[in-house]
Amino acid sequence: MNDDDYSATELGSHWFQGPEQEQEQAQASGPAPDRVEGEVLRFGPGVTAAVVHRVENTPTAAQIWHGTLPGAPMPPRPSRARWPRRYVPAAVILLLVLGFLFWREYGPRVAVRAVDVTASEQPLACDGTANVLGLVRTDGRPGTLTYHWERSDGTRSEPLRETLARGQEEARLHLLWTFHGAGTHRAVARLVITSPTPHAAEGTFTYRCE
């Protein structure tokens, strides 16, 4: 560096220009542009209320990103999910079907309405076998009948069971009673239903061998 060209007390003329000189230089540089990209925001003493209001209401990048601009309406809240209502009819139908199946399998059992016992009106011949019929009428529901036969000769059968299907409204129960030897005997066969409810009926026939 040449010491002759340097001076510690010599400053450029732009250090001494005041506001009036800056304005004159701006006017001398040419006409004002039609549009200026961006703006300078000034703060401190002398800043007008309008400028402060404009600054405070200027949207930030975060507000633009989240859609929370000042004065903008709030986004609508998502409505509550209504999908369960669409399945209510199907759920009701399913419950009804399950209830019907449960009632059919585990609901009230078969009910006995009437019991009748019949035998042949013609006398039974020598060494013959009588076919005594017990007719049990029900309500058609499924279930099991428990019963036994009692005979007038003092004998009694073991407990017997008859299973009824759904829709079966009667059960035909048979007793085969065989006789031997000469003589005449008035026989009585009694059918006793012990479950689901107690019922009983009897029938008579004649054995005759001369």
For this entry, give a set of tags:
four-stranded antiparallel sheet, 5 helices, 210 residues, alpha+beta, Immunoglobulin-like
Short structural summary:
This protein is of the alpha+beta class and 210 residues long.
Helix and strand arrangement:
Elements: H1 19-28, H2 49-56, H3 61-66, H4 83-86, H5 88-106, E1 112-118, E2 129-138, E3 143-151, E4 160-164, E5 170-178, E6 183-195, E7 199-209
Antiparallel strand pairs: 1-2, 2-5, 3-4, 3-6, 6-7
Mind explaining what this structure looks like?
- It contains five helices and seven strands; from the N terminus they run αααααβββββββ.
- The chain is an alpha+beta fold.
- The chain has a domain at 112-209: Sandwich (Immunoglobulin-like).
- Strand 6 and strand 7 form a beta hairpin.
- It is rod-shaped and about 115 Å long.
- The termini are far apart.
Reading the helices and strands in chain order gives HHHHHEEEEEEE
Do you know the CATH topology of the domain at 112-209? Answer: Immunoglobulin-like
- Range of helix content: 10-25%
Radius of gyration: 57 Å
Q: Report the β-strand fraction as a percent range.
A: 25-35%
**What is the name of the CATH superfamily of the domain at 112-209?**
Immunoglobulins
**Order of adjacent strands in the largest pleated sheet:** 4-3-6-7
Distance between the termini: 168 Å
What does the overall shape look like? rod-shaped
CATH class of the domain at 112-209: Mainly Beta
How many helical elements?
A: 5
Largest β sheet strand count, sense and barrel closure: 4 strands, antiparallel
Which ranges are low-confidence, i.e. pLDDT below 50, for 5 or more consecutive residues? Answer: 6-17, 34-38
Structural class: alpha+beta
Average pLDDT: 75
Strands, total number = 7
**Architecture per CATH nomenclature, i.e. the level-2 architecture of the domain at 112-209:** Sandwich
